[in-house]
Q: What sequence folds into this?
């Protein structure tokens, strides 16, 4: 929803139409305008202006027959006005400021190019010259069509912070003279990793909120899924695009069971699996199949994590889960994308497949090499394992340490509950 | 997110128009619209129905149901098929419907599909339906 919508509504129904049209088409509108102007910043700005104009005009004259075309034409006119103003200052715009004599130039957009435009918009918003925070903010804004207010709410940061990140991101893109174009074919796969990781960060923040009182921010997670679906549709031959989509769908399938009536966290073992979203599981497994069919060299990191989520989705209960398979998948993941968090998760799976003693060895190795310092996850798991081994006092100390390190109030409550239960 | 059914209602006028459109062309127009719904990640299901003349009508007007061959009475707006979409708002459903490639004279009715969560969860029949939905992945 564009910022302009936040003002006092002139007309409720016009506002709702503008919102719906924007949600459905913002990426295509901004993408087409960015190709036309060669400038994401200007494209976004004129798109917002067109939306503000639509609120006024549509509530007065009714919704036009082709709302998206109306927004595009209006934005394009604003861009031309902008070129005229800027052409005096900057020769880059001089050429574009000349009105086209070709009437077909008024076509709202080129249907054969629109996919490339949306994809280019994603690649530019996730460009490596930008900081990770800037990529996230710009992707949600320019591709997802969210307002700064919505992004700020989702990440629990001040609106001014988000606005500053977006402004800085646009300046950085301008200064680096990043063209509005798809990366060359030979760079595309490498750059895709950057896009995937931005979408994954957005999803993760929505599915396990790192700070604050609520465990889930489903709107943000669903936004990431929407973007991941778009990306998978635009790059249908990339296994990891499907892998990420599968991972998001399979994780989100558990959302309905992950929080209790008062918003408290419900652990995997205690979740009512009948509440899992079977449609999401089906979509996730279908995406996983596509990833597996496309990946000649086996699944990539997202595909592997999706496969692990798929094992859980297929299992009727925790004891009946194929933990051996999950251990194998974590071992593969550890080779493809080594990380201490993967090691820790492998330890949890090993505990289920082989017992807490074997798992504790992995965890103690992580402690000894100090690779997860400051994270609540390591003492959380260690405390759990020590508890299972009957080393109660040590277990309690670890769980209390984990609670102190944890920044999410809901998760902290679970850790303290576990520690208290050991007493 | 909420599910909406876009119910396509054809009239004699729109049916005549559709019959005069080359089949390949129709496939492409409808296919493009379907593709858009899929890309947006909103399409849940879609089905189109056979010619109403091929239908059978069971009439409950009398004491016992009377079965006759179709089409369904004199109704000018026949149910022709549906899309089921999962979207953020009714307005979004309306906007999708507006983009539907429909022939002149046709109409599209938009109705929200309530979820099973909106029914009394302690009712025995709702519990059974829920179990069936869970088994078949239609929750």
A:
């Amino acid at each position: 929803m564009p910022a302009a919508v936040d003002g006092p509504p002139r007309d409720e129904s016009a506002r709702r139409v503008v919102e719906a049209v924007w949600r459905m088409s913002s990426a295509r509108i901004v993408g087409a305008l960015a190709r036309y102007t060669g400038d994401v910043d200007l494209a976004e700005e004129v798109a917002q202006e067109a939306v503000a104009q639509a609120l006024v005009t549509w509530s007065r004259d009714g919704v036009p027959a082709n709302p998206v075309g109306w927004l595009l034409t209006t934005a394009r006119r604003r861009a031309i006005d902008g070129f005229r103003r800027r052409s005096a200052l900057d020769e880059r715009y001089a050429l574009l400021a000349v009105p086209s004599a070709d009437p077909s130039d008024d076509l709202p957009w080129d249907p054969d190019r629109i996919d490339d435009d949306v994809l280019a918009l994603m690649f530019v918003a996730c460009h490596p010259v930008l900081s990770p925070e800037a990529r996230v903010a710009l992707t949600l804004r320019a591709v997802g069509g969210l307002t700064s207010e919505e992004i700020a709410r989702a990440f629990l940061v001040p609106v001014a912070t988000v606005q500053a990140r977006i402004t800085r991101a646009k300046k950085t893109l301008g200064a680096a003279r990043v063209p509005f174009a798809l990366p060359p074919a030979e760079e595309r796969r490498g750059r895709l990793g950057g896009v995937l990781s931005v979408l994954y960060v957005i999803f993760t923040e929505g599915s396990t909120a790192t700070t604050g009182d609520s465990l889930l921010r489903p709107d943000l997670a669903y936004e990431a899924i929407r973007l991941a679906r778009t990306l998978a549709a635009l790059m249908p031959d990339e296994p990891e695009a499907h892998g990420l989509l599968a991972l998001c769908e399979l994780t989100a399938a558990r959302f309905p069971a992950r929080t209790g009536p008062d918003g408290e966290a419900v652990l995997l073992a205690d979740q009512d699996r009948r509440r899992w979203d079977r449609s999401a599981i089906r979509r996730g497994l279908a995406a996983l199949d596509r990833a597996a069919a496309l990946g000649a060299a086996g699944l990539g990191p997202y595909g592997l994590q999706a496969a692990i989520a798929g094992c859980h989705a297929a299992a009727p209960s925790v004891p009946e889960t194929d933990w051996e398979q999950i251990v194998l998948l974590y071992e593969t993941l550890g080779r493809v994308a080594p990380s201490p968090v993967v090691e820790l998760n492998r330890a949890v799976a090993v505990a289920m497949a082989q017992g807490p003693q074997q798992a504790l060895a992995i965890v103690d190795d992580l402690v000894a090499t100090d690779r997860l310092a400051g994270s609540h996850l390591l003492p959380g798991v260690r405390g759990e394992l020590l508890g299972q081994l009957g080393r109660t006092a040590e277990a309690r100390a670890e769980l209390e340490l984990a609670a102190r390190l944890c920044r999410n109030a809901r998760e902290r409550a679970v850790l303290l509950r576990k520690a208290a239960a050991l007493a | 997110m909420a599910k909406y059914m876009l119910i396509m209602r054809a009239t004699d006028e729109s049916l005549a128009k559709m019959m005069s459109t080359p089949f390949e062309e129709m496939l492409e127009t409808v296919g493009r619209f379907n593709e858009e719904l899929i890309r947006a990640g909103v399409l849940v299901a879609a089905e189109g129905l056979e010619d109403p003349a091929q239908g059978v009508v069971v009439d409950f007007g009398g004491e016992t149901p009377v079965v006759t061959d179709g089409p369904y009475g004199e109704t000018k707006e026949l149910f022709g098929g549906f899309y089921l979409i999962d979207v953020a708002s009714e307005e979004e459903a309306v906007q999708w419907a507006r983009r539907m490639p429909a022939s002149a004279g046709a109409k599209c009715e938009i109705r929200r599909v309530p979820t099973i969560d909106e029914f009394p969860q302690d009712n025995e029949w709702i519990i059974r339906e829920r179990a069936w939905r869970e088994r078949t992945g239609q929750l």
